[in-house]
Amino acid sequence: MLSKEPSRAIVPSAASPRSSTRSLCPVPHSRGAWRKYTRLAYRQHQTEAFGKYVEKLIAAFEDERDDHGLRRWLLELIGEARSPLTLPTLAEQLYSEDESLRSLAVRGLEQLGTPPARQELWKARANGSVP
Predict the structure, then answer these.
(1) Which of 21, 71, 75, 84 is buried most deeply by CB count within 10 Å?
(2) Nearest CA to 61 among 47, 71, 48?
(3) SS3 of the chain: helix, strand, coil, percent, to 5
């Protein structure tokens, strides 16, 4: 028998030999829960995809000195990677003379969200480097 509750998916239970016995699916199906689940899955996929190239992105950022737009784009990608490997590069850019690189570093550290990233942000704000 099907449930009339629209926010949950009903699937047959594998443990029961009777097809009329059904259990709730482990994947959330309410709109809010589904959005949160897909957002987290996308973020995990994005982190894994960027994570493969973090070292190359950091090396390219450190090697590039002439093209300001390319440096900004590379730092944005480094921040989007949300990898602990990015912490030293982002923390270094908190004290950059270029305001656009500082703001990208702040955003990257906020997205990273680890205690060391928050500590670096706190130190930079206490020193007055970033607002």
Answers:
(1) 75
(2) 71
(3) 60, 5, 35
